[in-house]
Amino acid sequence: MNKQFVIEVNNVSKKYKLYKSKKHRAIEALIPRINKFHTDFYSLKDFNLKVNQGEIIGVIGRNGSGKSTLMKLIAGVTVPTSGTIRVKGKIVPLLELGSGFHPEFTGYENIYFYTAILGYPKKLINTKIKEIIDFADVGAFIDQPVKNYSSGMKSRLAFAVSVNIDPDILILDEVLSVGDGEFREKSYQKIREFFDRKKTILYVSHSLNSIKDLCSRAILIEKGELIMDDLPEKVIPVYQDVLAGKSPFK
After folding, report:
1. Residue 169 pairs with which residues in a beta bridge?
2. Could you tell me which of 137, 204, 193, 139 has the C-alpha nearest to residue 166?
3. Can you give the pLDDT at residue 227?
4. pTM for the structure as a whole
5. Which of 149, 169, 168, 150 is nearest to 108 (CA)?
6. How is 81-113 classified by DSSP, letter by letter?
7. How many Å apart are CA 243 and CA 246, to the nearest integer?
8. Does position 220 have pLDDT exceeding 60, yes or no?
9. Distance (Å, rounded) from C-alpha 16 to C-alpha 64?
10. pLDDT at position 236
11. Percent above pLDDT 70 for the chain
12. In 3D, which of 241, 243, 174, 236 has the Cα closest to residue 202?
């Protein structure tokens, strides 16, 4: 069966305006014809990417290279300055730990709150609630306000929700770096199950071992540009050269 592109990023750029002071930002906001108080910064520039159904794509690059910007654009959290993005299927982004949670709600309440934001009906979540709670394994804290959770507990609950509501596409941005070894292994196993079921995953991580172990393909981003797109075992050494200052991509 031919693979289908479930994500297409076509000539996408994301530009931000950088100001030296709040005063300069205010002047431009009040007088639109004046635009000399900022400099343009491209978080992504002329970026192209096609992702097949069932691929697990490892996304690597130095801090500030544009990885998280790309994930937010694909997830629809922000929009590109230019270019187009097409996504086929239900997408669940796990970009920031517990970013979709209400701090005053309990973990249990936040399961329903977060999935409602994502567009999942309560009737469906009723059938998934026990599986989500068991996977998160936060114990009695499931009935406590999320504001009392550690970052690791938020990560566990957010990940448990995201992987147990059966999305077509899952975006994971540095979320598996938090948690003990047992939880990480359980998370890795869940990702492998997604791969076996032909789900699609975009996985951003600084853990090169997990990129190599979990991903079928890897992309390297440097200064907002796609530098390399190949098998993880080929991309990782190039990234290591970039980190060591041995690469021409600086």
Report:
1. 91, 200
2. 193
3. 94
4. 0.80
5. 149
6. SEEEEEE-S-EEEE-STTTTS-TTSBHHHHHHH
7. 8
8. yes
9. 13
10. 96
11. 92
12. 174
